[in-house]
Amino acid sequence: MKKTVFIALLCLINGVYSQNKTSQTFKPSVTIGGRIMYDFEFLKAGSYSVNGNEFRRVRLHAKGNVSKFIKYKVEFDFAKGAPAFRDVYIQFKLPKNIGSLKFGSFTEPSSMDNMISSNNITFYERSMLSNTQPFKYNAGILFENYNLFNQNITFQLAHTFNGDKELAFKDSELENGANLIVRTTKAFFKKKENHQLIHFGLNYEHRKNNSNTYKYKFTFEDHLGDKFVVNPPGNFKNTADFGAELAATYKSFTFQTEFEASSIVTDIDTYKANGFYVSGSYFLTGEHKIYKNGVFKGTTPIKDIDNNGFGAIELTARYSSMDFTNFPTASSGDKISNITAGVNWYLNVHSRLMYNYTVTDFNAFNLYGNNQNLHGHLIRLQVNF
């Protein structure tokens, strides 16, 4: 009897010890992933032409947990033949589900279009409006909470610095300024049976940079073509951007639009610019866009090529514009507009073929002479894993 009680006691002690040991020991996790985007571009405007190809993105990442409360991600892009920082951060989960803090480099929460992953963007390139910030990624501190009021409201607040992206966002002159970026969104009228919702968001950016190297620039929704740079008179002091977002989904249809007003302050004056885009897409094969945490997350084909299917076909269209009517430039008083039509073929959830046809109208800027529009045929082969 004593022997039985002794054995039972030993088993109990061992069980308590094992339980405590398990609770105190956390096994770090790691997941490896990446993406490849191989592009072809054919651009033409009068005598100006570009016919080229490039690896637009070649990324590898590792992410996981080192604690119940600590996550990490390390992502590099090799598209230029050398590693460049993208998402490289340590994330701390805050108590009582009040959100999390990221320290490192991450996507600045400056607009819906900017926050959607390149794996899931509807078009070959993001809108002109989304490309006016210095770069999609930056280094600093980010607070985010996607669970406010039953996950219908999101809030993000970032404080980032003016580091050089070519030097892994290194900034040895913090006294020259920093950036404040805020974004909040809310989803209305959500109905799962019809894949229905209405999204509304607001965002704000304030950027201070006393290095006098800041430039207000963007691309014409291609990548190999020219960049458009606006240099206001005087030395740059700061810029403030106010943005509004509206999006909706109903079954296979998606609508998305954004507006942004910018004030660029120099030591001479304050100059205004604004931009907007309106876009829509429709799945001929019956799929819908997935919405989570205030952005669209792509789609899952109903029947992909691995299951004797054809995949998903999405038709797309977008109109975007940047207006510099109140901005002094060499061709003062006009705007740049862009029309895009395209088709996306999702072979399965991890692969996609894209085609966009774009027409860019420079109006009074007349960049290529004789009021020539820029025509582009853009093709992408994409896999993510």
What secondary-structure arrangement, pairings included, does this model have?
Layout: H1 2-24, E1 31-45, E2 48-65, E3 70-77, E4 84-93, E5 100-107, H2 112-115, E6 137-148, E7 153-161, E8 178-191, E9 196-208, E10 216-219, E11 227-230, E12 236-250, E13 253-266, E14 270-283, E15 291-292, E16 295-296, E17 312-323, E18 335-348, E19 351-361, E20 374-384
Antiparallel strand pairs: 1-2, 1-20, 2-3, 3-4, 4-5, 5-6, 6-7, 7-8, 8-9, 9-12, 10-11, 12-13, 13-14, 14-17, 15-16, 17-18, 18-19, 19-20
Report on the architecture of this protein.
There is one protein chain. The protein has 385 residues and is mostly beta strands. It is 7% helix and 55% strand. It contains 2 helices and 20 strands. Strands 1-2-3-4-5-6-7-8-9-12-13-14-17-18-19-20 form a 16-stranded antiparallel β-barrel. A hairpin with a 2-residue loop joins strand 12 (236-250) and strand 13. The longest helix is centred in the first third of the chain and has 23 residues, at 2-24. The protein is globular and about 65 Å long. It starts with a helix and ends with a strand.
